[in-house]
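To close the chapter, one final illustration. This time we ask the reader to focus less on the individual chains and more on the assembly as a whole: which components sit near each other, and how the overall shape emerges from the parts.
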Amino acid sequence: MSLRTLPLVFINLGGEMLYILDQRLRAHNTSEDKSEKGVWSESDRRRVLNDIVGTMFSKSFMDELLKPQQLYSHRTMKTVLTRLAHTSIMRLNPASMDRLYELMIMAFKYQVFLCPRPKDLLLISYNHIDTIREFVRDTPVVMNQVDETHRNIIEVYSSLSEGQFQLLRQTLLIFFQDMHIRVSLFLKNQIQNPSGRFVLTTSGPVPYGADVPGLIRTFDLRGREVNRSEFPPGGTYSGLVREGSFDLNGDRVLRLGRNLYRVEHPEETQTSRTHSVQPDSAPNPLAKEELNQLARLMGSMKAENVPKGEPQFRINLFTTDQEEEAASGGEQEAMFQVINIQAVQDEQAASELARIAGQFTDEEEKLENPSSNKGDDLLAMMDDL
Amino acid sequence: RPFLSGPKQGELRCFKDTMYHKEKSIQIKNSASALYNNLSVLRIAPRRLTYFTVVHANVVNTVSASWDGLNYSHRQLQSKEPNVATSTSLIMQAAFCVLPSRDLLVVSSQKGIQMYESDGSIMVYWHALDTPEAPTAQAVFARGISAVSDNYICVGVSSGAVLVFDIPSKGSNITLSEVLEEHKEAITDIASECSGSQECLANLVTADDGGNMCVWKSGEEFQLLNKIPGLDITCSSVKLWKGTVLAGYGTGQIRLYEAVTGILHAEVNAHARWIYSLDIAPFSGLLLSAAEDSFVRVWHVSMTPETNSVEIAHLHNECVTDTQICGAKFCDGDGYAFAVTGYDLSEIIRYIQS
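The assembled structure is written out below.
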């Protein structure tokens, strides 16, 4: 379907990831003294965000994304986002990344689902970019990259018609299909039901440019209105919404895509599973095309050399999981999972990853294990990153 | 049985809230994808069966439901390209096409067009879309399906072209008869005159992403009768009935035009979000509209030939809670029952007149 999804997907998913990391790193900021084990200082937080944003908005990475191409699978998307997160001094173990990914996906799904007009996908993206710009405000080099990317996005997407934006949105909705993971922040704010489905209200403003439902007009052969009648639309709608700004700066008006995590409530990043489909992580024997895409993308990321001897830091996203379980008593399978961002001793320096990425196509030939699928091994190796 | 017969407004009784009630849903194997017109229904009276078809990503789900409600039989069809795990074989639409001698199930995707026997058992024809040499930013896909006249099936393409296939009364000797190139934007929907009247000059309407519509007369060479310009607002669903074009738009409006002249008869601010499906019950003039705002609405369209006027009245609303509806179709020519699909829903919801 749409060949223009990737830049917006990374800006929005990456943006959600940064919102969550920012909130968690702030929550654990109890000391400026970096040497105290287990504590993230303010400068650490800024450094993590700058590193990730710097890579995500680098020219080479964005240029790769802007090439017309199909949307990646969940597996590939998660791999690239993990790699992005690891361009900082922070490390995520696979379980943490899984939970973090679910949170990011559900947030973006909510935004795409509720998006009033297809074109408003850009306003949602710009809300993310605006906040990201604030995160890196004190690093002019990175902020300039953000601005430059923003200008590119404006240029590329300003020529799309509303119908093409809807195709883009429909492509994203297929990507999110059948995912109903419950997020406690969304449940608390009543934008998600206990079933995991989002609330679609039948009241509120209609999208900019649309009319409030309820009116029937008939015309004569010369185009003059001859009759006007009303019907009950079944909801309470209003008109008169301002259009948000599609420029580099300005009031976006739309709230979707803004940072919901700016409140100090640790339990808000909890997710829980229902019977919903998890993002497909099964090994994919015929994903060679995707591996090639992945290799190009990873190669385009700057390889940062993480010096040995960096102190390791552990963050717990949750302190209240036991309380959560007790409180939820009576609900079926309230399996609230803890997202633990743990610093794991990383044997491979970040530069190794880029080297490995370049070797993907060679490695496939060399693998000789007859009992397992070649694709399995490659993809399993990516999981270890 | 159907208490709405004939188009005369005087005979219409408005039951509003109690006009329809919900019936038992049909479970489908996958959830419906958010695609325009994502439900097709085929009523097979001699066998007392109704077929339903719903698209999920790269799979077509078909269900055969017996009228007594006791037997349901499921089948899944995949886009022709096998074993491709990435999203290159997404299906845009699946629709039943009824011709005098045969019914076919037509599936349009990013790769091309497949035609099956109506029960999905055998594929009788495959047409591959031209893929550009170098990757361009424009997506390539087929979308918009309709039978027209006695022996044609028309399918739209993302380039704006409309492919006309000549269908023999049986067998697989289906050929591409003509390519209509009037539209500049991706085709969204195609509809043929469904009133059964032979008097209508126009018998086909095609619509595109910019809301532009073309009105045609079928034949060995299709003839363009009229163009109705859009206002840069996508027309996502279109119907043609008694010479009137009924069109649903991304702004939630429904508009009724006289097909051959383009005269606007009526305009309805029908929905608060993008319309995804329109359907008309040809014997009664009932109109069904469904949108992302979670509402399905039933209307009545009536014509007064003496004054050449067309009227539309609202009859009924159904709200499918928290659901963006992507398909809605009447199950019979009178509009006695209708069926609905929604994004992320794994069921076909049915309603029947009270």
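Chain B touches chain A through 65 residues (CB under 8 Å). Residues 1-15, 82-87 of chain B have pLDDT under 50 and may be disordered. With these observations in hand, you are ready for the problems at the end of the chapter.
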